[in-house]
Amino acid sequence: MANVKSKDNGIVTEIQKVLLDDSDFLRELVQNNLQKIIEVEFENYIKALPYERTDTRQGYRNGSYSRKIRTRVGSIELDIIRDREGQFSTQLFRQYQRNEQAFVLAMIEMYIQGVSTRKVKHIVESLCGTEISKSMVSSLSIEIDENINKWRQRVLPKSYPYLMIDARYEDIRDQGMVTSQAVLLVIGISEDGHREILSLDMGDSENEQEWIRVFKDLKSRGLSGVKYGVSDDHKGLVNAFKKAFQGVGWQRCQVHFMRNFMSKFSRKEVKEYIIRLKDIFAAPDIDQARERKEKLVEELEDKKAKTADWLDTEIEQCFTVYGLPKEHQKRMRSTNMIERFNQELLRRSRVIRIFPNKESCIRLFGALCMETSEYWQTGVKYLDMSLTENQNKGGWIELAQAV
């Protein structure tokens, strides 16, 4: 038994040396196996082995091109076989995440429609390993568009007590002209405490009618249980929200309010007064917040009467959040969460610069929204919604009416 054990240990040691000391071992192993997969794929596609003559053959080889891909064992280079008709495409490179597919597709469309630069052309052809045609763009987009449209039209079976609403603008090419169009986003916090992107839509602007259309669509898909919504103070958005969700508390984003407040002071003055405003928003309850507000209004009356009147009236819209459980107030007093997601959208759209059409914009942002929403729903809960059970059932509505 001792000899057998000694031999086994020796074999294990040798194997460990190969795996740990030879850095290229795993990379070469993966590369060889992936190359074999491509070979088998091509043989199945043309229904013939190399140099095999058969009545079922459906094509012939036409050389190959090299393509590098990144894997967990490093960068590997594969020979991708071409057929004479140029129709063969290995399934290996269809394993992009949806958002990566949409990103590449948006760049391809830029090239096809003349929006891109020569650099974009080079990037696209390097990614795809071949020249790009309109038929290829069409075939690539069909599957992605179907999935995104199903997601955008999905039924909403849960209750969503909290909504966060925002819009951003993107440049879209339309009938030979570049126009700025609104991307309308609605994020919900469900009854189980997870975040979910409920709606992605586009409109000529974020006026009242566009937002009413978005909210009607959400309701037709089953949106229910809304108690509270937070957004900036865009008049069209606010009017639409109050019409669509009567009796629901609306919160003006405190961060947007701070920016508006700061614009009313000089650089020397703003440092002092922004501290005072932050102190108001840091109040532990609405009564103390109003007391601190009154003091600041009184101080401003002699120096800046118009600003004092504006503050006295407008800041009340920022106090609706006090109707929520204290543990929820920090995250729901502003639109910071949706603003952070908008930064991710901006990171992608900055590369595109001008979308070739509205569909391309929805495709890219829709894919990102799908991936993000799925990640949120399977991750850690954003809020503990069980805390709302102890909240006065009429608390949100009463506070909304009070402010």
In short:
With 403 residues, the protein is an alpha/beta fold. The protein has helices at residues 2-21, 25-46, 98-112, 118-128, 134-152, 208-220, 235-244, 254-262, 267-281, 286-303, 305-314, 326-332, 336-352, 358-378, 395-402; strands at 61-71, 74-83, 162-174, 177-189, 195-203, 228-231, 249-252.
Topology:
Blueprint: H1 2-21, H2 25-46, E1 61-71, E2 74-83, H3 98-112, H4 118-128, H5 134-152, E3 162-174, E4 177-189, E5 195-203, H6 208-220, E6 228-231, H7 235-244, E7 249-252, H8 254-262, H9 267-281, H10 286-303, H11 305-314, H12 326-332, H13 336-352, H14 358-378, H15 395-402
Parallel strand pairs: 3-6, 6-7
Antiparallel strand pairs: 1-2, 3-4, 4-5
Beta strands, count: 7
Rg from alpha-carbon coordinates: 29 Å
Strands of the biggest beta sheet: in what spatial order? 5-4-3-6-7
Biggest β-sheet: count, sense, barrel? 5 strands, mixed
Question: Quick check: average pLDDT?
Answer: 82
Order of helices and strands: HHEEHHHEEEHEHEHHHHHHHH
Count of distinct structural domains: 2
Give an overview in words.
The chain is α/β, with parallel strands linked by helices and 403 residues long. The chain has two domains: 1-92, no CATH class; 159-402, no CATH class. Helix content is 53%, strand content 16%. The chain is built from 15 helices and seven strands. The strands form two sheets. A five-stranded mixed sheet has the order 5-4-3-6-7, sandwiched between helices. Helix 3 (98-112) crosses helix 5 and helix 8 packs antiparallel against helix 9. The longest helix has 22 residues, at 25-46. It is elongated and about 95 Å long. The protein starts with a helix and ends with a helix. Residues 1-7, 111-117 and 393-403 have low confidence and may be disordered.
